[in-house]
Amino acid sequence: MQKQPEERDKTPASLSYTMKLFEFKISEATAFFEQQKENPNLNENMIKGFDQFLESLDEYFEMYKIDSAEDCQIKIFGSVTLNNRAILRATNKFQNRPWFSNIAIAMNNEELSEYPSDKGICYAKVSIDY
Q1: Which burial class, exposed, middle or buried, applies to 6 when counting CB atoms under 10 A from its CB (0-12, 13-18, 19+)?
Q2: pTM
Q3: By C-alpha distance, which of 122, 26, 124 is closest to 76?
Q4: 28: domain range?
């Protein structure tokens, strides 16, 4: 049985995702990542991300008690424009240079215990439901 995302887990659809970099089926992820390691256009950060992707996704599924995602399609984008018009980039080719934005999240102190943390540093995954 799959757990439905709670309202606080959803990303507002008003965000603008651009520069789709990759798209693959979750069931083909391992083969896709191995193939991409030979891609001369990827830098070390992108390859490291692929190496850690499935492990991180498994942790996400455990956290939200998701039993199966075998039919899922994964899309990885190079940038997102936030509601305040700030652009966050995660790409190795933006105007011929890598650009990985540093991102800081201001947590509500009253909600800190509701999030998984690593020595007080919180992480979250983003999902969009249309």
Answers
A1: exposed
A2: 0.62
A3: 26
A4: 7-122
